[in-house]
Amino acid sequence: MFAKILIANRGEIACRVIRTARRMGIRTVAVYSDADANARHVRLADEAVCIGPAAARESYLVADRLLDAACRTGAQAVHPGYGFLSENDRFADACAAAGIVFIGPPATAIRAMGSKSAAKTLMAAAGVPLTPGYHGDDQQPAFLQRQADAIGYPVLIKAAAGGGGKGMRLVEKSDDFAAGLASCQREAISSFGSDQVLIEKYLSRSRHIEIQIFADTQGNCVHLFERDCSVQRRHQKVLEEAPAPGMTPARRAAMGQAAVEAAKAVGYVGAGTVEFIASDSFAQDGNFYFMEMNTRLQVEHPVTEMITGQDLVEWQLRVACGELLPLRQDQLDIRGHALEARIYAENPDQEFLPSTGRLLHLARPAESLNVRVDTGIEQGDEITPYYDPMIAKLIVWDVDRPAALARMRQALADYRIVGVNTNIDFISRLVACPAFANADLDTGLIERSRDFLFPARSEPPSNVFFVAAVAGLLREHEAALARASHSGDPWSPWSLHDGWRLNIQPRRTLTYRSGDARHEVIVAYEADGWRLTLGSESVLARGRFLDSGQFAGQLAVELDDRRLVASVIAVTEKQEQKRHVFLNGTNYVILRDDPLHLVEAGGAHGGGLTAPMPGKVIVLLAAAGQQVNKGAPLLILEAMKMEHTITAPKNGRVKAFRYAAGDQVADGAELVDFEVTQ
Predict the structure, then answer these.
(1) Residue 29 in contact with residue 48, Cβ under 8 Å?
(2) Which helix or strand (DSSP H or E) is residue 239 part of?
(3) What is the model's pLDDT at position 649?
(4) What's the CA gap between 385 and 382, in Å, rounded?
């Protein structure tokens, strides 16, 4: 077995590999960019080497720097993780040339499957069913348009060298093809260094099912069953589960055998995933079609580990050392059901726009045999625009799917993050969504369940304001006691924070804002608590902070005869006093209007439009002086390897652009001088 390995990656997958390596007695070397100098994977590794600036193309994607780090530290092998250079055949060749083991498939297998077009040609020759489409080398836009027209809309344009949902565009009609192709090619060249695309017929009701395969250097190959990855946004997976609901033993065997044959056809070694798309009639007819093969460990591999009891990273290390597969096909079986949710820093209500910033507060659910959290992020860390905004993977297991769903709901309720927008509340609704709960799955589930998943904004329930008020009153009381203890007269009645007034009932008003609405909680001090009144509702409130190492700010609140457990995290952001109230599995964000500290918050800048995050202007879609309608695209901003279109907020005129194509812009930068004419 290896004595030392270098992990050519970052974040949660680097931490994941370190965990298994440490258990096996293998020393680890981390690499990091300037932006990751204090990252968790750097702290966990036995050694760490800086490989360059923050931008991935100047650090994590520079093969020479990675190999130099491996040679200087005496690492015998390189684990590429996923993303970055994990499916780069030239990197695998370079490792071999340097006498370093690449913990992954041979470069020949990566080349064979690295191009979606070439892979489909190979699978067609092997008799694997393919979706109708064009996978050739002619990349002339006019020719590709004719191919799409012949296939019939809707079609999916996909980067031939792509993955992870990047470089992919759904085109509904012929008139939109040219713009979709150009956008897809720009994103493809940025993410993968190649703008070659393929075109496929888009199945409007389809399921995304993938098979985990594993092969050793002795010609043995097995599959570790399937994962259902149908729930997606922006063609990227959000929830994964294993086994796939509705999968029969016969279909599982057929798909597993097809995946094994695909791996053997390219002389595969190590961990890989063969991805299939199935029609909405899959449960009845069992039809499935080859999509692609990922020649690496997948993000969602933990659900396979949970149902098989196997450590796939350990399998990778053993196979890379030349050992036989740990188990034969007949020794593998499925136990229970597992779900994985990807916790992202993003705003689902704004088309899943990534969110950047520092994690001011982070509390994870307690890990156990049923709950697992894979993460490279800790409280105080920053989500930057340089890398994927995934915070963690939350994985749960139980004896069957209903029990696993219940586990996931509770674990999501226990996940509490302040400092960036997250998709936690959205995933909580997704797990509770009738379509998902009933396993009515397809890749369009999120879109067809929009009414449930994106409910109209409503005011928080009164209990949120009552809980926030109690938390504030308790903190004031604790602060008063602390000041008194350090004063010359700690028992002075003037140190008490009990609202006492001469000859009048002690009362005060706490004002909160939610959106544009103001909510005034009137506090009357009573002997056994506080009488809180909000509108026509009045309750006798008591409370105390709980001594909990897991959840900071957690308190028990009694409202008349009801007892609630919640967390209230107070932060100041952009001159606003925010209160994050975590109650009943939902994070409610309200603002505290304190007359003693009220500061006018910065509003919108005159008719301008601002950058939602740091990025680069890719193309201007309008001209200075042009009249545009509300929703008209004005420019495209690239951030986090994704394109974001900035549109006109109302009917108006573009007075001027402040940046040109190719310019870098900061978060909040004014992009356009815009004059509203409506």
Answers:
(1) yes
(2) strand 236-242
(3) 85
(4) 10
Least confident of 14-23, 85-94, 227-236: 227-236
**Looking at residue 575, what is its pLDDT?**
65
> Can you name the residues that pair with 657 across neighbouring β-strands?
672
Query: Please, which pLDDT band fits residue 100 given cuts at 50, 70 and 90?
Result: very high
Which of residues 230 and 122 earns the better pLDDT score?
A: 230
- Residues 577, 129: Cα–Cα separation, whole Å: 58
The C-alpha atoms of residue 374 and residue 395 are separated, in whole angstroms, by 8
Q: Which helix (H) or strand (E) holds 259?
A: helix 249-265
Q: Would you give the distance in Å from CA 320 to the centre of its chain?
A: 30
Concerning whether 296 is annotated as a catalytic residue, the answer is yes
The model's pTM is 0.81
Decide: helix, strand or coil at residue 225: strand
What is the reported pLDDT for 537? 96
SS3 assignment, position 423: coil
Nearest CA to 468 out of 555, 537, 585 is that of: 555
Exposed/middle/buried for residue 326 (C-beta within 10 Å: 0-12, 13-18, 19+): middle
What does residue 630 show for φ and ψ, rounded to 5 degrees?
-55, 135
For the chain, what is the total number of helices (H) and then of strands (E)? 18, 39
8 A C-beta contact, residue 2 and residue 26? yes
Question: Residue 504: which region, alpha, beta or left (left: phi > 0; alpha: psi -120 to 50)?
Answer: beta
3-state secondary structure 106-150: CHHHHHHHHCHHHHHHHHHHCCCCECCEECCCCCCHHHHHHHHHH
Check 10, 16, 227, 296 and give the catalytic one: 296
Q: Which two tokens stand for residue 238?
A: 């959000």
- Helix, strand, coil content of the chain in percent (nearest 5): 30, 35, 35
Measured CA to CA, the distance from residue 488 to residue 492 in angstroms comes to: 9
The CB density around residue 659, as the number of other CB atoms within 10 Å, is 18
Q: Given this model, what pLDDT does residue 118 score?
A: 76
Q: pLDDT tens-digit profile of 157-215?
A: 988 887 666 788 999 999 999 999 999 998 888 777 888 999 988 877 889 999 999 99
Can you say whether the dihedral through the CA atoms of 521, 525, 530, 536 is positive or negative?
Answer: negative
What's the confidence (pLDDT) of residue 189?
Answer: 85
The per-residue pLDDT for range 426-443, each reduced to its tens digit, is 999 999 999 999 999 999
Exposed/middle/buried for residue 97 (C-beta within 10 Å: 0-12, 13-18, 19+): exposed
| Separation of alpha carbons 559 and 543, rounded Å | 9
What was the pLDDT predicted at 236?
A: 86
Which residues contact residue 675 at a Cβ distance below 8 angstroms, ignoring those fewer than 6 apart?
Answer: 607, 652, 653, 655
Residue with tokens 């990778």: 316
Q: What is the pLDDT of residues 492-506, one digit of tens each?
A: 655 555 555 545 567
Q: Phi and psi (nearest 5°) for 270?
A: 100, -160
What does each C-alpha distance from 365 to 362, 410, 416, 426 come to in angstroms? 10, 9, 9, 17
User: Minimal CA–CA distance to 677: which of 632, 620, 611, 617?
Assistant: 632
Whether 102 contacts 80, CB under 8 Å: yes
Give 554-566 pLDDT, tens digit per residue: 999 999 999 999 9
Q: pLDDT digits over 582-615, tens only? A: 999 999 999 998 654 433 333 333 345 888 777 8
Beta strand 77-79 pairing with 4-7:
parallel
Tell me the pairing of strands 627-628 and 642-647.
Answer: unpaired
Nearest to 197 by CA among 161, 165, 147: 161
Q: To the nearest whole number, what is the mean pLDDT of the chain?
A: 89
Q: State percent of the chain over pLDDT 90.
A: 65
Identify the helix (H) or strand (E) that includes residue 508: strand 507-514
